[in-house]
Structures
1.
Amino acid sequence: MRHDPRPIGIFDSGVGGLTVLRALRARMPQESFVYLGDTARLPYGTKSPETIQAYARQAAAALMSRNVKAIVIACNTASAHGLAALQCLPVPVMGVVEPGAAAACEASRSGRIAVLCTEATARSLAYEAAIRSIRPGARVTTIACPLLVAMAEEGWTDGPVPEAVVRRYIGHILHKSDSPDCFVLGCTHFPLLRRAIAAVVGPAWPLIDSGDAVARCVEAQLIDTGSSAAGRQGTVTLMVTDGPDRFARLAGPILGARLRERDVEVVDIGEVVDAAVIPAA
């Protein structure tokens, strides 16, 4: 069997995509990964579709310069607005919306599904479309929760204050006869606040994290194309566009490692954009 030692590229606006990286590493420890957090320009969720597409092209170009064999858009906002713009690449590109939607459809008994996401993801209607392509009769409630992204980036992920913020966003749809029976964490930052969200919604409602679903899809694709790495332990390269010290401090607990500023490389992704590789939409 042919093996491909090239790394898998992953990008997000900040630390949220590390939840996807964590799931990928757990499922495929033999693979190597290059992670890019566009920390200089986060959050993506408040930007226009055109700006998000431009950022996605620049991030993908930076990863392509590292000779990656696949790219995972570990950001729901960039998946919703930028995935189509990256389909021209010569490597597989996968977003997180469709795997998350599929997992929600499988978990929901009634078809009443709530999606917690950013403002830009909510405006895109991407989750509604993905869910209804699988369950046409689904009833989807989308709630933009932009403050949760900022709280995750601050590392303020549980306790009474995050719980109060979550309750302010979603309290009005809980404990009704027609309430959703599952919640999609439709931003990769939101699994970092899982305990706060679970404390508000209660144990009866499953919280759908797209990370595991994405990891299964990536693994299946690599097997199908004969592009899996050999059985050795893979490596992880971390890159950001700003603030490596802060990123290292936040990323360490997520990845279960002691990270220092020198473990995170700072890159200028504007310098690596090649319009011939990823043309503007």
2.
Amino acid sequence: MPTENSPGAAHAAPSSSALPSGSRIRVLVVDDQVLIRRGMALLLDAAPDIEVVGQAADGVEAVALARQLLPDVVLMDLHMPRKGGVLATREIAAALPNTRVMVLTTFDRDELVFDAVRAGAQAYLLKDASEDEVLDTVRAVHRGESRLTPQIARKVMDQFRLLANRMVQEPQDTVLPSEPGTASPASAAAATTTAAPMPAAAAGVPAPDALTDREAAVLELIAKGQSNRQIASALHLAEGTVKNHASRIMQKLHANTRTELAVLVLARGGAKPDGA
């Protein structure tokens, strides 16, 4: 069990918060650099609607604390000892469907961005993001929205296109990019394929004709990062109806997350994210 001064110690929210604990967004901060981790925790705890419930120094601690604390949002670094952020994201996304992962890292290499999104990350920010952008993204991810900056979205699209070309040219020998230092290319590719099958639309089998007009409209707003509630208001639908549409769209396009849906629309030259 982590002690108060250990890297993975749970961090209690300040008692002076303006909102009761149950009303705040519960966040787990994961970063192997103690100053960054604690600084991010201080930033988040200062917001009246956010409560940092734990801190972890690597992916092993992140998965263990996520299972124990059941946070709403995990703020995840990527390069960490013992277990990196991509593998930790994949395990948390698979085990805790109500917990959303938001990547905050200094790395914007194409393969890391791609792997993080494929692992289930709902948002991807670089550490040079402003404080307001970090706070706004935490709130958006908690609402069920996906957030990719235009720069990051382009990198993900490029990786989807590269992978689609490989699958066309060498369908039996495709190797997905993997997190450096975590596994051999072959085993990492197998793990990635098992955890999250490649969306058919990104693999050179577009399926826009399979969508109804209403589903296409819903998909366009998902690509802009809007939540089910916002989409319901924009299209004059019940929120439950939007949720059903989103589920059918994900099935038809073989996507695992709303972030993947947004990337697929961008790859086809569709809607740009809000603020792009």
